[in-house]
Amino acid sequence: MLAVFLSCLDAMAEEKPQPQTQMQMPDPYAVDLSTSEPLEPLDDNTLSNDPEFYDKTARGFVNTGIVLFPMYSKVNGDDTAGGGTFMYYFRRHGEPPLSEPNYIRTTLVAGQNQYVDMNVSFNNYWDTEEQNLYTSFGYQRRLANFYQPFTQTPSLLGTYRTSDFIFDVMYRQKFVFNSYVGVKYEYVYNGMDSKTPADIFVSNAIYGLNGDAISGFGLIWSSLPVEDIFSPKRTSVFELSSTLYLKYFGSKYNFARHILDIREYFPIRSSHVFELEFYFSMLTGEVPYRQLLSVAQLFKAYPFDKYMDNNLIGIKGEYRFLLFTRTYFSLFLGTAYHANSVKKFKMNEYLPSYGAGLRFLIDSELNINARLDYLVGRDAKGFMIGVGEGF
């Protein structure tokens, strides 16, 4: 009996219930590290592939920037003008971080002798830089000098007052090798008032001394601007365009303008950059006086009205290096030639320009920079403050 009783106690001990523990719920934030696949960080590129991501963020733009900057320069002889420019830069969600930013720019400059220069422009990239639309509207009024064109030693003949309206629009589509092909339209009304002396402006040898309007369509093939002019990779940028101004389009005169602009960037060392540019422009047909090519289009030290012709060639270089944080020192040198025809270019008939200045990096992500330059040319010099890449 004792053996049977002990065996019953052992059976009851084995069947004794264990104390209950609290139920464990699965952790929704736990990460299973048992897999052999490495975990990849979630970056902007990954998010951009999620079509629902941007609906959740409810933000229209990224990398936005606003710049309000003063401007100052010589405009005619010893006259000066000053003002400011307001720019709003932005990129849309889904665009590459280093893509060319869109911008809206407004400029207002006023100066001596009732000088006024107003401009509003909008540059828009979309579809991941596949397409580009640029539009610009401007008005300018200034007291201008009338120099004898088509000569290496122009003489001052008289003065007049301009009253110009300018409208530009350009559409480009991405082509090959990071370049674009497109079409552009330009309308310009050149007013010429208050002519002194009046009889000097009566000439059968020079078209357009009464001003009038021009209107033309053109083709353009160009590449994107350099993403960072202070520390770029070794690269080239170019623009090749041809525009026809015809009476059929509403132009007063039939003529054509052709432009070739090539720039090469050479990074020498960290924060040291050399830029070399070759520029050639040619006019053919019944070219009005106000549309003649000016050396001032290449070198800001020269007055716009003094050296004007049908053909223009220029070579210029700029060396810039880091002076201190976000500020670069720049040295530049160039020479230009102008002639009535391509066959009449002469190496000893050159117009030099040189100078030095500072470049201030305002926004590295949007590639916005300002400049302060002192420029010297033949019997000309100037001091300039502005925004953008200038020579």
Descriptive account of the structure:
It is a single chain. The protein has 391 residues and is mostly beta strands. It has one domain (64-387): Porin, CATH 2.40.160.50. Helix content is 6%, strand content 56%. It contains three helices and 18 strands. The strands form two sheets. It has a 16-stranded antiparallel sheet with strand order 1-2-3-4-5-6-7-8-9-10-11-14-15-16-17-18, with no helix packed on it. Strands 12-13 form a two-stranded antiparallel sheet. β3 and β4 form a beta hairpin. The relative contact order is 0.10.
N-to-C SSE series?
A: HHHEEEEEEEEEEEEEEEEEE
Characterize the biggest β-sheet: 16 strands, antiparallel
Strand residue content: over 45%
Proper CATH architecture: Beta Barrel
Write out key terms for the chains shown:
single chain; 391 residues; mainly beta; Porin; two-stranded antiparallel sheet; 3 helices; 18 strands
Short summary of the structure?
By secondary structure, the protein is mainly beta. The chain has helices spanning 2-14, 44-48, 53-57; strands at 61-76, 79-92, 102-111, 115-126, 131-147, 156-174, 179-196, 212-223, 235-245, 255-269, 272-285, 293-294, 308-309, 311-324, 327-339, 351-363, 368-377, 380-387.
What's the topology here?
Layout: H1 2-14, H2 44-48, H3 53-57, E1 61-76, E2 79-92, E3 102-111, E4 115-126, E5 131-147, E6 156-174, E7 179-196, E8 212-223, E9 235-245, E10 255-269, E11 272-285, E12 293-294, E13 308-309, E14 311-324, E15 327-339, E16 351-363, E17 368-377, E18 380-387
Antiparallel strand pairs: 1-2, 2-3, 3-4, 4-5, 5-6, 6-7, 7-8, 8-9, 9-10, 10-11, 11-14, 12-13, 14-15, 15-16, 16-17, 17-18
